[in-house]
Specification:
With about 170 residues, the protein is mainly α. It contains 3 helices and no strands.
């Protein structure tokens, strides 16, 4: 019994230390509500935030944690996502006209059917991202190297001279 208590105490101490150092970081409901209301929140913890169907023009969430967030069918024209973690996020059908995704992490994100007219994707990480049906023809800063690590389909619109491998079925 003492071994179990000692093990539990050690586990709780480790968890407390991880929380204190930021190694474990749950979502911040107040920061999520702030962005849902249309206010900027650079550097915020928006982990798994529900921003679906929202109209959030010009919102600044640069350097924020939006990992696994739902931005599906949102309109976020001229928004700033510079340096943000959007890994495994759902951007299905969303509109990002003129938005900035400079150095954003879109690893394994779902960009299916999203519109990026005039958006800046310079230095964005697209490893494992699904671009099927995405409108990227007028996007800026895209490179062949970025797109080679993503996947798309015949309906993916890319700047002239660029292509992406097909998504596995």
């Amino acid at each position: 019994m003492m071994k179990h208590i000692a093990a539990l105490t050690l586990l709780l101490a480790s968890l407390a230390a991880a929380l204190a150092t930021g190694a474990v970081s749950a979502q911040n409901a107040g920061e999520i509500a702030r962005v849902q209301a249309g206010r900027s929140c650079p550097g915020c913890n928006l982990f798994q935030a529900d921003l679906a169907y929202r109209d959030l023009p010009g919102v600044d969430v640069s350097n924020s944690r939006l990992r696994q967030a739902d931005l599906s069918l949102a309109t976020m024209n001229h928004a700033r996502f510079d340096g943000a973690d959007l890994s495994v996020a759902n951007l299905f059908g969303a509109r990002f006209t003129g938005a900035s995704f400079r150095r954003a992490d879109l690893t394994r994100a779902n960009l299916v059917g999203a519109h990026f007219g005039g958006a800046d994707l310079s230095g964005a990480v697209l490893d494992g991202a699904t671009l099927s049906g995405a409108e990227l023809q007028e996007a800026r800063g895209l490179t062949a190297a970025q797109l080679s690590r993503a996947c798309g389909d015949a309906s993916t619109r890319l700047p002239a001279g660029l292509s992406t491998p097909p998504c596995a079925r």
